[in-house]
Write a structure and sequence with these properties.
The structure holds two protein chains of two kinds. In chain A, about 65% of the residues lie in helices and about 0% in strands. Chain A is mostly helical. Chain A has two domains: about 20-115, Four Helix Bundle (Hemerythrin (Met), subunit A) (Up-down Bundle); about 120-180. Classes of the chains: A mainly alpha, B mainly alpha.
């Protein structure tokens, strides 16, 4: 598990390809999709793996030929996702491709993380919150006792409501603390809102 | 063990074409027997004969039956290494593209939402 992103780490060695080629293949695929979804969430996309690639393409982060190539790698494991079996040799080859993608996506995420860390505290907190999957966004809101109405955790309106309430009630420091428990994006930083009220 | 998966694509296509021709020839033979029978020729279409011809026609289909199984039955396989080779090539293309990619972060400041875009 990555300290910064909370994403599942995967390596060729960790995949038990000989014994469970199908599981290995799907684990590698899941690692790719998790990273794409993480990046898509950062730019305001939905918390859905099947829409992440399109979101990143529409945003201009990933060019169309690259998006197609990534999709081709993901599609290679579709039969297995639907219950087919696969020879270990084929699973190994496709899994290696997926792990290659994971490394490239991790580098992109690292570069993005560095960029975010140079931003003002309020922006860092915003990105840190948006980087969380919907269930953790709700967990953070629950933790600090904010219950946004009329919006679902995966929606931007929900995040806006959480931040607006936290600001109104002067609980931004609590929000920072709660978010930092779930993501390494701001975990290493001292809470800039502690004792300062709202920014 | 020799498997059709390991044959090159052109060889697999050749096998498929040969199989189709063989099925057509056998079907034509069965049809001619039936026509001659209807014309009054002395052709005895015994139950054994029909069963035999049906078996000869259907038996070659058995190796393909696996791929007709529904997904989830554990019977379908990714048969061709071409899929893996294509994935490898596409992963290289994607990695090269991602190396120069940069996430276009929108301006997000949920605390000062009026400035958010």
């Amino acid at each position: 598990m990555s300290v910064i992103t909370g994403l599942p780490e995967v390596s060729v060695e960790s995949l038990n390809i000989d014994e469970q080629p199908e599981l290995a293949l799907l684990t590698a695929r899941n690692a790719v999709e998790a990273r794409l979804t993480y990046l898509a969430r950062l730019i305001g996309g939905p918390d859905r793996p099947d829409e992440a690639l399109r979101t990143l393409e529409d945003n201009g982060t990933i060019e169309r030929p690259v998006a197609r190539a990534i999709q081709a790698v993901l599609d290679a494991s579709n039969p297995v996702a639907h219950g087919a079996t696969v020879a270990p040799s084929v699973a190994a080859s496709i899994s290696f491709s997926a792990v290659t993608l994971v490394r490239s996506l991790d580098e992109l995420i690292e570069a993005t993380t560095r960029k975010i860390r140079e931003m003002p505290a309020s922006v860092r907190l915003s990105y840190a919150y948006l980087s969380l999957p919907a269930r953790l966004r709700k967990a953070v809101a629950d933790e600090i006792g904010i219950v946004p109405e009329g919006a679902l955790p995966h929606e931007r309106e929900y995040a806006r409501a959480v931040f607006k309430t936290a600001k109104t009630e002067q609980r931004i420091a609590d929000l920072w603390t709660a978010v930092s428990r779930h993501t390494g994006l701001i975990a290493a930083d001292a809470n800039p809102f502690k004792g300062a009220g709202n920014e | 063990m020799l498997s059709i998966d390991t044959l090159p694509r052109w060889a697999r296509v050749a096998v498929a074409i040969a199989y189709c021709i063989w099925v057509v020839v056998l079907a034509a033979f069965c049809f001619s027997v039936a026509v001659r029978s209807l014309d009054g020729d002395d052709v005895k279409l015994s139950v054994e004969f029909v069963t035999l011809m049906g078996g000869v026609l259907l038996a070659p289909l058995l190796p393909f039956a696996q791929s007709f199984s529904l997904p989830g039955g554990g019977e379908v396989k990714i048969r061709s290494t071409e899929t893996a080779q294509r994935a490898t090539k596409q992963a290289e293309i994607a990695s090269a593209g991602l190396a120069s990619a940069e996430v276009n972060l929108p301006e997000v400041d949920l605390l000062n939402d009026e400035a958010s875009k």
